[in-house]
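Run folding on both entries below.
>entry_1
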Amino acid sequence: MARKTVEPQRATIGLIAEEAGVSVPTVSKVLNGRPDVSVATRTRVEAVLARHSYRRRTRGPTRTGPPLIDLCFHELGNEWGLEIIRGVESAAAELGVGVVLTELGGKHRPEQAWLDAVLARRPIGVLLVLSSLSEAQRHQLESRSIPFVVIDTEGEPPKDVPTVGSNNWNGGLAATQHLLGLGHRRIGMISGPDDVLCSRARVDGYRSAHAEANVPYDESLVRWGNFDADMGYEHGRDLLTQPDPPTAIFAGSDVQALGVLRAARELKRRVPEDLSVVGYDNVPLTEWLGLTTIEQPLRAMSRTATQMLVALARGEEPPLRRVDLATSLVVRETTSPPTA
């Protein structure tokens, strides 16, 4: 006769309160992100919640108004971010969901104050852009049954974290192959931070393109920084004033490419006759500039992430938890064969 399997007892708020040495209302306040709980008490309750892998069946009192999702950027301020916001808002509107937008001032991991505000808002889910959570922060969301999805990860996330991005390695490969195919042999590469996954992947693609073409590259032509115009300008000007300057520069973002174009103009380098320039992202501005670039499907990425998040909030399992959308080369007027 087969033995009956006994399921482990699910932790209750009462059990959490007893182990933490607090009242049930205090545990409820912690779960709901209420501010009227001391830091020491909150820390103690969170530790017990984590120990029991507690997950709330519901998110607590029904909020007034439409359901919300939190969209959290590591940093805002350029067209790249606006494209992601447009994609999220478009998908959220179709799904009847509101959006709360916050940024982390350039940090890739939020502080506890941000998480406390999220818990107090009781969103149905959280979208993180180029950001990640600590294990403790993950559990704080999971214990409240608040799912999260990461757009364009800043590092390699745990395998169970839902993510949506694009094939950055292939984008770096395609951009560099295009320039090599035109005949360029000294190609500068300006990327983002060297501790961000997409930056490293684009540089890896650049290196792989050289290896496949059996063309050596000069490591001194590879620069790291951020994705802003000022860094494109600074590195672009430095590369172009070298004794043996590059005849082409591949920038890690369209905004960086704007800085490169300004540096070229100040140094009297004609584009594309004296210098070919390739950007990355294909934000709307690039069409007006005639910039050759790599199209990163930012709106499709953010729409996909939003749909995935709402599905998780509804208790549905999406077909895939890791999605990498394809990139493609868009050739315009800023690239041509090098002059003799």
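>entry_2
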Amino acid sequence: MRNPPDALMLFAAGFGTRMGALTQTRPKPLVPVAGRPLIDHALDLAEGAGIGRIVANTHYLGAQVAAHLAGRRVAISDESARILETGGGLRRALPLLGPGPVFTLNTDAIWTGPNVLCALRAAWRPGMGALLALVPAGRATGHTGAGDFTLGADGRLTRGPGHVYTGAQILDPSGLAAIPEEVFSLNRLWDAMLAEGRVFGLVHPGGWCDVGRPESIPLAEAMLAHG
């Protein structure tokens, strides 16, 4: 079993409904920011971290994502029959990812500053259930709300305001086997780990922009221009 992690799950199956007309005929991972598809920005992080195995799940207009990734070092976990959400999607992809802890990364965000995947790898310790990359709510560009988690002095997380989950983490997926549903969110696994005190946070010191809506695209491009 690998430790530190060396496999990455890219979440690329969503419908992107908040993007409106931009995702009528193309999937959200292919929406361009600063002239490049969102998923290519995510792959830059993976390649910069030297991750050995990368898997992307696909559903909505998934053939476009698969065609875009053809010839690249990315395996496809096909969810065309039924979208499985983050938890079900990760569990479906585990045979492609291999055993042990994995990185997961949403494809609808833009980052500046140190490579977040490298930082997560450096901070990961055996015994952790999950290590989530966070930004303070006041620095979460394109995102509203008071935050998802409260960060304790010992690095452990509890549900509450203060920090926003960025969509990047390292996770021990072994607990997925105990969840009976086929379609479910990774929140199910987090909740079990939170109860055990096994979910930790790492604050990203650079910029982060949630590109979930069209109006976030110029915010992300401005962040990149000044990053």
